[in-house]
Amino acid sequence: MPRLRLALGQTNPVVGDLAANSKQVLEAARKASAAGADLFAVGEMALTGYPIEDLASRPSFLVAAHEAVDALARQLQEAGLGDLAVVVGHPDGPFEPRLIGTSNAPTAIAKNRASVLQHGHVTARYSKYHLPNYSVFDEYRIFIPGDELLILRIKGVDVALIICEDLWRDGGPLAKLLEADAGVLLVINASPFERDKDDVRLPLVTRRAVETDTIVAYVNIVGGQDDLVFDGDSVVVDAAGTILGRAPQFIEHLLVVDVDAAAASDTELPPAVSRVELSDPRAVATTLSDDIAVPPDGREQVWNALVLGLRDYVDKNGFPSVVLGLSGGIDSAVSAAIAADAIGADRVYGVSMPSQYSSDGSRSDADDLAANIGLHYTTEPIADLVLPIETQLKLTGTAAENVQARIRGIILMGLSNLHGHLVLTTGNKTELSVGYSTIYGDSAGGFAPIKDVPKLLVWEFARWRNQLAASRGETPPIPVNSIEKPPSAELRPDQTDQDTLPPYEVLDGILDAYITRKLGRADVIALGFDTETVDFVTRLVDRAEWKRRQGAIGPKISGMAFGRDRRLPITYRPNDEPLPGAKIRSS
Amino acid sequence: MPRLRLALGQTNPVVGDLAANSKQVLEAARKASAAGADLFAVGEMALTGYPIEDLASRPSFLVAAHEAVDALARQLQEAGLGDLAVVVGHPDGPFEPRLIGTSNAPTAIAKNRASVLQHGHVTARYSKYHLPNYSVFDEYRIFIPGDELLILRIKGVDVALIICEDLWRDGGPLAKLLEADAGVLLVINASPFERDKDDVRLPLVTRRAVETDTIVAYVNIVGGQDDLVFDGDSVVVDAAGTILGRAPQFIEHLLVVDVDAAAASDTELPPAVSRVELSDPRAVATTLSDDIAVPPDGREQVWNALVLGLRDYVDKNGFPSVVLGLSGGIDSAVSAAIAADAIGADRVYGVSMPSQYSSDGSRSDADDLAANIGLHYTTEPIADLVLPIETQLKLTGTAAENVQARIRGIILMGLSNLHGHLVLTTGNKTELSVGYSTIYGDSAGGFAPIKDVPKLLVWEFARWRNQLAASRGETPPIPVNSIEKPPSAELRPDQTDQDTLPPYEVLDGILDAYITRKLGRADVIALGFDTETVDFVTRLVDRAEWKRRQGAIGPKISGMAFGRDRRLPITYRPNDEPLPGAKIRSS
Predict the structure, then answer these.
(1) How far is B128 from B131, CA to CA, in rounded Å?
(2) Interface predicted TM-score (ipTM) over 0.85
């Protein structure tokens, strides 16, 4: 069996920055070459970042991406790396718009491609066949699908090349692969992180390796891009399902793995499969040590995703620092801890904005948090700013309470305007679900670090992060009191969240059923929740859609995040409830 | 040639309200029957409203829609309308998710359907074949496409039934229709209004009638649904391209037209075409008078779209009234005039919120506007509310200016919280494009009536609306001074928009090229715009994406509105500019 040395580069591209992204690929290729690799691959769209969304319908963008691929081939050659076969993902076009199948996308002028570079030229191209158009993905909107499988012959081994979704779907390139008898299946990916997704992704890779009797080399990009976090976690699995190499999550990494693959035979190729012969790189005799990362437990993975999502949003958009309000509550405490882990406490500015309803406990909890983390900390009391407004407008009740939250929003935005901070808004997923926040008040901000974290998980994170600190001999960041006291918005005397909302255990249960599992009212009730509570909660969820539409983005960690993952009308009069138990229909 | 009496019902459904929407269909069917119609049709998704977005992935919603169709059939029968053949659009399911073609939508469990009801039962069903997945449409995300053409035989005439996008695409049902030799092509639609869309839609209907040698009956829903406005404009065109009947735009209407169609023959049906025989309704001998509406000029159409979009958002969401800030400027003046046209001046609350920088002219312009329109009008000076904040936070420059706008936002939201008003935000498309607004300040609000109207068009509307009033002998609503004075945000002494922005003629030209026409920087410059100005403007557009994401919805009137029509990343470092002139690529 011929031995092939594969190098998989987990790069962290910035959408649009072709020069910087190309440079990342070039640098990683240099290391791959130095490590003696025969074949080097980076992720899907590593050249432009992912997702590019409707940039794919801007012809000049596609031309620039195409030219950047040619330029990269030349740069590799000029850097003495021309021997190395390099696979890079990028959009390509513009092509004539085409209507495909029974769908149609008159705006689609692009293809989602992998190009193979060697000796200063593009040697071969593959176009993604299966275009995901669900969840956060809109690829059928913007891409023309490919219709061929590409096989690269290198050092006597046939390497089939596909892109991301192609691996998840039966039929198409995988069906052709079974006929074409390749030794290695190389998959380039831009696969966003979700909680427990490695429980799905690794078994998939393993299953495909076994099914197709190939060594599967899976390379994913890494980094935060708006509401998505790509976790890397690139992996190589042999045809028996054994992990040969695995990259760590959430950081840039070059994974180099030797594989002993079946020798290519000269059987006739099935239709719609093309084969390109690559010249063999010079042999480099070195021995590799194992590089098999073991991912941390689920909570730590999610925390790392939140940290990277925030860090990349801050850094890719050029913010010097972040600012957030510290109420003494659990949400702002956890958000501050994430921010400090992401960009360092010296770039985090906390502001305590007490009112007459803020308890002494809350103020000292905020003080303690700031001290524990070591962030910049100031206090801006709001009573004197709120009173003139309440008085002039004769506001009472909720209308008056909202002014407190909105003055806090003005303060944070004012500090942002003065100093260039990114404002973090600290609402959790439970709050966002039921609209338990003041729009233009505590929801004001450019990024929402715990937007996709339900309240119960916020508490769990707080305890876990404190334990982690303790286990490292560091000061636990979150004050115990912030974790243990009853949650309150503190907009009126002795208020607690449970004056208005059901207990969080019940609330998060109903929300999971209604939002994540998409159950109707009757089916949620059938789970055992109280009818009145279900009606109350689902009504709140429906009515808060307009607020969510105006909310800040934040990292998706669940299978159903707010934003493009869940697209619902604002104007919606729910009068559409049958009895529980929807039956599958046959016609 | 047999004569068929067709009735097309332009109903205005509310998304989700199956009971109310069914009642609309039932009432229109009653009128259709009284008018002697043989076949009565309402629009695509008339039973659930459109677009239902991801409600289509909620099984209970689909069950409820399916049951509502059965119930409607029974109600028609019970109302003595069982003889009438009724075609109604609705989603159906849940079906097993299927992967279709090279795309895939594991979440799609619904079909977009037309059901034919007669004698208390569903007699036939058609599933939409071509699923639009571009612009504002996401149908490939949520629907499983159909694969057959349905032909209804009624009174000796073959009526082919298709849905919306099916009419726009060659191939599929239209290709089958050419073989199947029907006399009438009935198309049910949910086709949103766009400026000048009737220049495209009517010629399409006419062309299809000629191409297929059929009488085309096109029925569209009417009404506002979030950012879309459906204009109705239902039409019947004969095979020579002559308009036999046309409904007015933007109102509910029953269009009844007699057509003399080719008699059905008993040629064999092509594959994937099914035919259902309907029983003939009792004959009713009446004579119809012509019902051929002539649409008003383009400006009036757009105005009517803005008016209906606002009215339906207010009424369908149950707001008693709207509130908006009146600055004396043109944007708030035009917004107020739209609001008064939409829901009546007595449901419109205007608030003047002058600062020390507001000119006397602006104040009196706001006063004049309020008096002209006759809306509720109060004044809330902001100086005493702004000063404590500026002082405590030591804000200067833009940071201080933004406080003025944000205090105004707090005032309007406070009044909304007290009285239940919907807050209107009055930014125009040009402002939104370049981010020339204060987030959580003047952008605060639930609905943005002129969000898709560029500044130059705002002025045009103001002049046109005043002329219309004059021609009717009414008081022109917009003060002349608001139209003629240089636009200003009035956040500092003697400020005008053109201190910061290029002249609006230039600005709107660049924006049209960059946003609507999707040209890259170099191609915009090649149109003759100044390089520095193009760089300045396109940079502003890119950087304002985060603000637009948090903006209110408003009616789409252009071919490229902000919102789901244009999906771009926030994190985007534009470094992707080739030379001008993108060439179409062949591979």
Answers:
(1) 7
(2) yes
A positions 477-496 inside 8 Å of B (CB): none
DSSP states of A209-270: HHHHTSEEEEEE-EEEETTEEEEB--EEE-TTS-EEEEPPBSS-EEEEEEEE-PPP--PPPP
User: Is the model's pLDDT at B565 over the cut of 70?
Assistant: yes
What is the predicted pLDDT for the residue at B103? 55
- The answer to whether residues A382 and A442 touch, using CB atoms and an 8 Å cutoff, is no
Amino acid B105: pLDDT:
62
Alpha carbons B565 and B136: distance in angstroms, whole number: 5
Q: Which residues share a beta bridge with B292?
A: B246
Residue B295 has pLDDT above 80, yes or no: yes
For residue B405, the model assigns a pLDDT of 97
Q: Using one digit for the tens of pLDDT, what is the confidence trace for B134-154? A: 999 999 999 999 999 999 999
First to last CA, chain B: 52
Please tell me the predicted confidence (pLDDT) of residue B98: 75
Short-list A337, A427, A328, CA closest to A379: A328
Please give the C-alpha separations between residue A537 and each of A12, A547, B395, in angstroms, as whole numbers: 40, 16, 41
Task: Determine which helix (DSSP H) or strand (DSSP E) holds B39, and give its type and residue range.
Answer: strand B39-42
Q: Which two tokens stand for residue B378?
A: 């109060």
Structural element, H or E, at residue A348: strand A348-352
B 303-332 residues with CB < 8 A to A: 312-313, 316-317
The gap between the terminal CA atoms of chain A, to the nearest Å, is: 52
Residues A351 and A323: beta-carbon distance below 8 Å? yes
The parts of chain A modelled with pLDDT lower than 70 are 100-105, 198, 283-285
Residue of B63, B140, B574 lying closest to A103 (CB–CB)? B140
How confident is the model at residue A362, as a pLDDT? 87
| Nearest of A434, A436, A388 to residue A410 by alpha carbon | A388
Contacts for A265 with CB less than 8 Å, ≥ 6 apart:
A181
Question: Considering chain B, what percentage of its residues have pLDDT values greater than 70?
Answer: 98
Catalytic residue, candidates B111, B155, B164, B556: B164
